[in-house]
Specification:
The chain is about 75% helix and about 0% strand. By secondary structure, it is mainly alpha-helical. The two termini are about 35 Å apart.
Length: about 425
């Protein structure tokens, strides 16, 4: 038990701090190798874990490849400028539109896609609009929050969604049917709370004439218009795939590679560079970290958590759902949401109430916003901002996260209880 716990804590520490530039996937696989060598897991466990996470990680890679190609042709920049122009210079309306754009990108292209791709575009546009530092920070904090809080509606909107849906055999349509209302509630309540907290830092008017015409940033107009049709057809394919019980990665990765091939053929993207720059470390991160977490399960450390969750399940659905969601949220904030969702899934597997699996997802998606290291998306987001000269301190971020997250999380969990 002590050995498994030490391996987990050291691996997690290295993932969060990334000493000497050590990649997250490399660190996780090192932790997995140590787990195997010291006997906290065996080779059969490794095969079981790989079977659990392969679909999730390949689907995630596919979504990011699709996002990278769309970014290269100017899709997201066009959306950002269009959003700003639609506000007609009203600062508060622009704030709302920016968050709606963030919710759209997070839902369709995953929270990490929103963090990696949309953040630098919005930052560049805000600097072009000559906004002051406090206003830029307000927009960035709000955008960073919505990237996770809006990553609920589809199985592919967050890596935690895919892992849990696969673990509990939840289909694409079934998942969407349960999570659509909590998604809508999360977006609305997030925008309202974020506006109330940050409204004093938002200017009344902004000169949007400083921005280019949206069409001027497009690298290929025919491919841009085609991309909307492609996304719609891809979404239909997910529904068809669910009817035939096909893995989600077949469409996410297949669609991403097909669109990359199309963009390369039209000279709008470079296939080799895109594939090379895809976040392959996430594959090794998911497999390696899950193996380390499985060592905790073998050591019996998930049994205590399962006992608490079973007690909650006897208190009625409302208490069980809210309690499970907040346990997931707190654990995610303290030790990152990927190991949390894995540990919670294992602990929940013998509890005959699938609503708690959805509560776990909500907690693991929103709870990480309470600390800077709560999710991979936030770590990526902070890294991107630091590269662009914007540094947000631990306490500055945590004070904001601890203020806005609990009321939003509570409201979304109540909506799950009401409509599940």
């Amino acid at each position: 038990m002590i050995v498994a716990s030490l391996i987990f804590l050291i691996t997690l520490l290295f993932v969060i701090t990334q000493p000497r530039g050590l990649k997250i996937g490399t660190t996780a696989m090192m932790g997995a190798a140590v787990s195997l060598l010291l006997g906290t897991v065996n080779f059969n466990d490794v095969l079981l874990v790989t079977d659990i996470v392969w679909d999730a990680t390949l689907a995630f890679i596919g979504i990011i490849i699709m996002s990278m190609v769309l970014d290269e042709i100017g899709f997201f920049e066009w959306c950002a400028i269009k959003m700003a122009k639609l506000s007609r210079g009203n600062g508060h309306l622009m704030f709302v539109y920016a968050l709606l754009l963030g919710a759209f990108v997070s839902a369709l292209f995953a929270n990490d896609g929103a963090a990696l791709i949309l953040t630098p575009i919005l930052l560049a546009k805000m600097r072009l609009l000559k906004l002051n530092a406090k206003t830029i920070l307000a927009f960035l904090l709000a955008g960073g929050f919505i990237s996770d809080s809006a990553s609920l509606p589809f199985v592919f909107s967050n890596l935690t969604n895919i892992v849990t849906a696969n673990y509990f055999n939840i289909g694409f349509v079934e998942y969407l049917g349960v999570m659509f209302v909590p998604f809508v509630v999360s977006v609305i309540v997030s925008i309202l709370v974020l506006w109330l907290v940050l409204k004093n830092d938002i200017p009344k008017t902004i000169d949007v004439n400083l921005l280019k015409n949206p069409d001027d940033v497009l690298k290929s107009k025919p491919l841009f218009y085609m991309s909307w049709l492609f996304l719609a057809l891809l979404l239909v394919a997910y529904f068809i795939g669910d009817a035939y019980n096909l893995p989600i990665s077949l469409f996410a990765l297949g669609g991403g590679l097909l669109f990359l091939a199309l963009a390369s053929y039209m000279k709008a993207a470079h296939a080799g560079a895109t594939i090379k720059n895809a976040p392959w470390q996430v594959v090794w991160f998911s497999i390696g970290l899950y193996i380390v977490v499985y060592g905790l399960k073998n050591a019996g450390l998930t049994d205590s958590l399962a006992s608490v969750l079973k007690d909650l399940a006897t208190q009625g659905d409302m208490v069980a759902i809210i309690g499970t969601g907040f346990i997931s949220a707190i654990l995610s904030a303290v030790m990152n949401n990927m190991p949390t969702v894995m540990i919670m899934d294992i602990a929940l597997v013998d509890i005959p109430n699938q609503a708690l699996a959805y509560a776990n997802i909500i907690g693991c998606n929103l709870g990480p916003k309470m600390t800077p290291f709560g999710s991979l998306a936030t770590l990526l987001w902070l890294h991107v901002l630091a590269q662009k000269g914007v540094k947000i301190g631990f306490w500055e971020y945590s004070k904001f996260g601890l203020l806005v997250t609990p009321p939003i999380l509570f409201t979304v969990l109540v909506s799950l209880w009401l409509f599940v």
